[in-house]
Specification:
Elements (H helix, E strand, L loop, with lengths): L2 E8 L5 H14 L5 E9 L2 E5 L5 E3 L6 E4 L2 E4 L2 E4 L10 H8 L9 H8 L1 H9 L4 E2 L2 E5 L6 H7 L4 E5 L9 E3 L5 H9 L4 E6 L4 E9 L4 E11 L6 H5 L3 E4 L6 H18 L5 E8 L3 E8 L9 H8 L4 H10 L3
Parallel strand pairs: 1-2, 1-7, 8-17
Antiparallel strand pairs: 2-3, 3-4, 5-6, 9-12, 10-11, 10-12, 13-14, 13-16, 14-15, 16-17
Length: 324
Amino acid sequence: MKRTIAIVAGGDSSELVVSLRSAQGVYSFIDKEKYDLYIVEIEGLRWEVCLPEGKMAPIDRNDFSFMEGDQKVIFDFAYITIHGTPGENGLLQGYFDLIRLPYSCCGVLPAALTFNKFTCNQYLKGFGIRVAESMMIRKGFDVLDEEVVSKVGLPCFVKPNLGGSSFGVSKVKTREQIQPAIEKAFSEADEVMIEALMEGTEVTCGCYKTKKNEVVFPITEVVTNNDFFDYDAKYNGQSEEITPARISDELTERVQLLTSAIYDILGCSGIVRIDYIITEGTKINLLEVNTTPGMTITSFIPQQVEAAGLDIKDVMTDIIEDKF
């Protein structure tokens, strides 16, 4: 008997479109000889499964099942590929825990912690991990330009504290740009993070661990043609992604060891991708931890899996079977 897998995509943020693209990627990666696959779209209270011939059927939220004709289909496993709420912040994980459905990624606490960039970075700072100077503002509280300049300095980045994919992110170079950038970030989330600029080489490293395997992927170097690694750089080809990164073997090993350590400190599960800036040639600074990284065909993780000489179909099987 094949296991029945839900690839859960969508979400309630600007990242919905990216998530749906990741779902198509995951669908193409999973071994269809071993598993029956369905893409489930979640958007607000619309929970629907995609059936053959473009038809949609409602998901019964009591047990995450659906009717296909006169047959009730119950999933054995959920591969979560929602970037943003409710799939990256622990909400969906809590629901799946309650109905006893195994899933692909981190549990409630690691998901909630990593989704809050400021809290996650401050937590990891306590373990001696280097992070940029930063501050956080909640909606309804004002911050003076002088506070930003004295605490973080210019240039700086203003970004939604909850989310990803570079929606609502601004690189601020002058005082006059601070408040408009904060307003833009608040359009995406109720918390805004202001972070000091770190000049250097941007790299990213994927990792996953199961009961049988511990895999840290080759590192990707990110070279953007834009002012920073914004949405167009990420998704519209306005960047160069070099795997393996053009850094020394010694530095590569340090980044990979740090990635593995952060994975364990946070108690991660499934595939995680961690972004860094290397400053002054050898100093590794954490940018953020992504617990549901992009999984389109051109995303970082598939690139790194290929560079590692692995078959992504085997990686997906490894992650699914680890939960049984």
